[in-house]
Amino acid sequence: MHDELYPVPEATAKAALIDNDKYLAMYQQSIDDPNAFWAEHGKRIDWIKPYSKVKNTSYDYHNVSIKWFEDGTLNVAANCIDRHLETRGDQTAIIWEGDDPADDEHITFRQLHERVSRLANAFKDNGVKKGDRVTIYLPMIPEAAYAMLACARIGAVHSIVFGGFSPDSLANRIEDCRSSFIITADEGLRGGRKVPLKANTDKAIEVAARDGAVVDKVIVVKRTGGDVTMKDGRDVWYHEAVAAASPDCPPEEMSAEDPLFILYTSGSTGKPKGVMHTTGGYLVYAAMTHEYVFDYQDAEVYWCTADVGWVTGHSYIVYGPLANGATTLMFEGVPNYPSPSRFWEVVDKHKVSIFYTAPTAIRALMGAGEDYVKKTDRSSLRILGSVGEPINPEAWIWYYDVVGEKRCPIVDTWWQTETGGILITPLPGATALKPGSATRPFFGIQPQIVDAEGKELEGATEGNLVIADSWPGQMRTVYGDHERFVQTYFSTYKGKYFTGDGCRRDADGYYWITGRVDDVINVSGHRMGTAEVESALVAHPKVSEAAVVGYPHSLKGQGIYAYVTLMEGEEPSEELQKELVKWVRNEIGPIASPDLIQFAPGLPKTRSGKIMRRILRKIAEDAFENLGDTSTLADPGVVDDLIENRQNRA
Ligand code: PRX
């Protein structure tokens, strides 16, 4: 454990928005009187009709209901664009950096206004109405941000599907929210490789149609100019649709609790859930955290390397920064293309002040060696951020020493798709850092650590992380399934929001996230349900049974380890291993590819037939000396075979 304290660097302390005294005072106020606190901070965005009610939330298991600013009305796109026109119409809103270093574009707030308005009208011209769900399946091009904001402008609800997901995964999401409209591109481009987005969309529409889900219109952005089939009457070119549309589109007046977007995320059971976020509270929380966590100051260039397909891209590439009138950088490519210097070259090229990325990228770049960093200048950098998984102290220290040259505080931000924004994090001017700790709660957040029975543990301790009360950015429901929302988050520890994460609190009150305590694994900062990978595997004709667990992986954080039992008469082979990996990639997407597959004649089960995952996890971790009690297994003999044929020999 690294308990060494890194004090706030002097230069940061001088310039920062919030120092430690101010943090402590504001935090106390936010807990003592949340209504007064959020009544005040809700004003940071523009309301059409101001709210008179602030917090109306219940975590009561029998009646979970979350509403913030409920009688206020507003429009998110107007907040992210229109209200900046007078003061910063000619300021760059979005810097787009293409996959190819020769491709980039600056888009001002005025240009953003016109492009979003045209697309909003093009959506309307193609039949999209307030409340309709629009699926966005786009690469990291400015049109992805335009599409989000165009939906918000007319009150449509977007559901972004990450471009790395397969046609089947896309189809599931289209079906679940009954989305009749899709915006996609001919192809995506990442690290010089093409991704057939339109062809995937065509396949997904076919799959969805089998279940009765009809897609009326597909708007297609021409990104690469690659060959695609356009279906008459259904498929429309983006450039033609926006050219024909009016640039004048008054923003729709939305109620604070109208849905803004749905974003699917994996859980420990079943299909991915449609996490639903609403309009007012989400925007207040995304904007406020963006400003304070990154200490964002006027005219700075801010870069979050996430993809808009994940929540980080929603809150911290598009909504938070643009609501604050920030210049936000959108990057189409990958960290190591054309070389592992790319991130730092982009930082120098665009004079980036604030840089926010994931530990998996840091570990990969660390592995490539510091020369790739050192040959760049990076003097524009002021703040570094990390998100997505626990950052190991070695990677933290490398990020701090080599990338930031001991000048830039690292904000290790803990949060989730469900939380809408950052919940536990340092504030650059207020918090002394410890490598690997997300440190302290943001305003309004009451973390608690509980034991297995739900008893709150005091002081320095370790257990399960819950949040005791609501904050404005919290998800409101699982789309179409409120019961699942209640069951997933409020039933384990009644009256509290259960995060699914384990956590330690040290003597200074700092929080250290230890990882998931449920059947969710975190691969390169992406959430994967083990149940999803298992059901993909058993869909293969040669597989009879599968159990999937996570194991420590030096680059990805966690790797995917699959135990597979074959159908009677099928022979294990290296070929079949490869075939199964390919199969899962096709079923879910490359992020779900198993790293290791072990063919197992039998799985350890209790006499009632329940798979003992604890044992499988230990063997996958190559830590089987300590398997615990195996005497309750139906057939204790299977364990020896599993150990003998284990795939991860650390
Ligand atoms: O386990 C935690 C981990 O990522 C999970 C949330 O994943 P997702 O909804 O995909 O959102 C990722 C981006 C916000 C959490 O339950 N996690 C996220 N950030 C951190 C983290 N674990 C440790 N430290 C973090 N900073």
UniProtKB/TrEMBL annotation:
Top-rank lineage group of the source organism: Bacteria
Residues holding CoA: 190-193, 312, 336, 524, 585
Keyword Acetylation (UniProt): yes
An example Gene Ontology CC term for this record: cytosol
An example molecular function term from Gene Ontology annotations: AMP binding
Residue ranges constituting the Acetyl-coenzyme A synthetase N-terminal domain according to the UniProt record: 23-80
CDD domains named in the record: ACS (cd05966)
Residues that coordinate or bind ATP: 388-390, 412-417, 501, 516, 527
Record domain AMP-binding enzyme C-terminal: where: 532-610
Keywords, alphabetical: Acetylation, ATP-binding, Ligase, Magnesium, Metal-binding, Nucleotide-binding
Positions where N6-acetyllysine occurs in the chain: 610
Catalytic activity: acetate + ATP + CoA = acetyl-CoA + AMP + diphosphate
PANTHER family reported for this sequence: ACETYL-COENZYME A SYNTHETASE, ACETYL-COENZYME A SYNTHETASE 1
Protein name, UniProt field: Acetyl-coenzyme A synthetase
Protein source organism: Rhodobium orientis
Taxonomic lineage of the native organism: Bacteria, Pseudomonadati, Pseudomonadota, Alphaproteobacteria, Hyphomicrobiales
Gene: acs
